[in-house]
Design a protein that fits this description.
single chain; about 575 residues; alpha/beta; 5-stranded parallel β-sheet; 4-stranded antiparallel β-sheet
Length: about 575
Amino acid sequence: MSQLVGKATSSLKACVCSAMEKAMETGALPQAEIPEFLLEVPADRSHGDWACNAAMVGARAFRMAPRKIAEAIVQNLDLTGTYFTRCEIAGPGFLNFFLSPQFSVDILRDILEKSDDYGRSDYGQGEKVMVEFVSANPTGPMHMGNARGGALGDCLAAVLDAAGYDVWREFLINDAGNQILKFGLSLSVRYRQLFLGEEAVTLPEDSYHGLDILDLAQAYADEHGDDLMAVSEEERSRRLVEFALPRNIAKMKADMKKYRVEYDQWFSETTLHESGAIQEVIDVLREKGLIYEKDGATWYKASAFTEAYMKKDKKGEISEENAPKDEVLIRQNGTPTYMAADIAYHKNKFDRGFSRCIDVWGADHHGHVARMKGAMDAIGLDGEKLDVVLMQLVKLMKNGEEVRMSKRTGKAIQLSDLLDEVPVDAARFLFNMKDAGTQMKFDLDLAVQQDSENPVYYVQYAHARICSILRALKAERIEPRACTDEELMLLTAPEEVELIRHMAGYTDEIIAAARSYDPARINHYVVTLATLFHKFYNACRVKGVEDGLCAARLTLCVCAKTIIKNVLTMFKITCPESM
């Protein structure tokens, strides 16, 4: 949390503890160990700025009614030297505390002083974390799930960075394994069809049927003609993959760059095969007695390790259909499975010094979570240090109906199509409006609307409006200046106080978003901030009031502008000064 909020919290907690100790000394409370209690900002602040449940949780320890405990605490409470002026008892024994005007003054000064760094903290203590996200299959174009994953992963990395973690963004390129063999075969069939006709060569049912495969085969033919018709199937597939895969990867990188997602590393799965990393994890498991041979394949005894991470029913049991199973690591044909490569990849991550690894996966991978966390334990690492954010599906909507095909191309809508249709600002903001575990509908009409219904436009407009206010006043030679404490204490209107209280919580909101892996919290925070600013400005005149109040309100405008800009900049969304 911010230093000011932390100071307020610790001092208030000390005061409540001291009051209970004094009450025990005077006999108002019986001798007992002071229980753990909570201090929190209530959703409704009309009854107080902060609430405390010390009397409620103390009922068992003191063997008294909470209301009586609350009365004893208040009678012995000394708030001298804190940001709080008084305490009131509510209901059966809740303690409601009211902040002094000095708290608002110090919050505004803190925002002005920290400016672009306001909201940042050292909560993460520089812990090295990796966020791996998107990692789309390079055998085809990126889709809407990748669009959501790109926004969520990048925004999650951003809030972790702001919360004081040392963050690394990574994209795993699955450029080895079965999908590449299938890619090569699909390209080969399409290539031969160009010269022999579709009737002469049948595309297998389990191949890639997208038109992008045909386009790549055609591109090769346009450059090299029929030079692969006379070579073996293996050679033809290999050369077509060598031609097509770099193009697909380049397109993925271009799409991500257009989406403003910059990775620290694009990690090639092929390097795991070439370096012997996959064989290394198999050897480790073999040394631990966790490998056996069956039906010509190499198996890993995954069951015991997987079970520890599987969800159980109310009886604490796992259903038979979801029972953990052993895993094949090397197929009968000698090629490693995806599981083998994934264990090696995650071991590689931890070997690089990351103390926590966060993966953003589609919800269809939910069954793989327990297997991979268990595998980390099996090879001597800690599965609890691997966290997986499961992301639900996206539905594209237009005119109230689901859209699956692009009118421009007649094909399934891809990430690149989306970014051609809607602003990147809207895509990044709207895809981060809901937590990953919630299914979402992406409204194409809303994304291009330029009104208050579009949340990103609404927030950007608030920033532009403040800039406009400052420009207009500057033209009349009225500019922000340093205020005295007494001037800032003039900000007592309900709309002013509510806005300041909300701004005071920004650092805590960043930390909460980082802790829960839910960057959508910050979107909702900044939308609320924009709403509170508009509410303030519509209720409180800046120009035409006495000089001290005018200066204080200008300061409030500057502080609101600072935080909106910090949020938008953190999420790589443009911050216009006029709209």
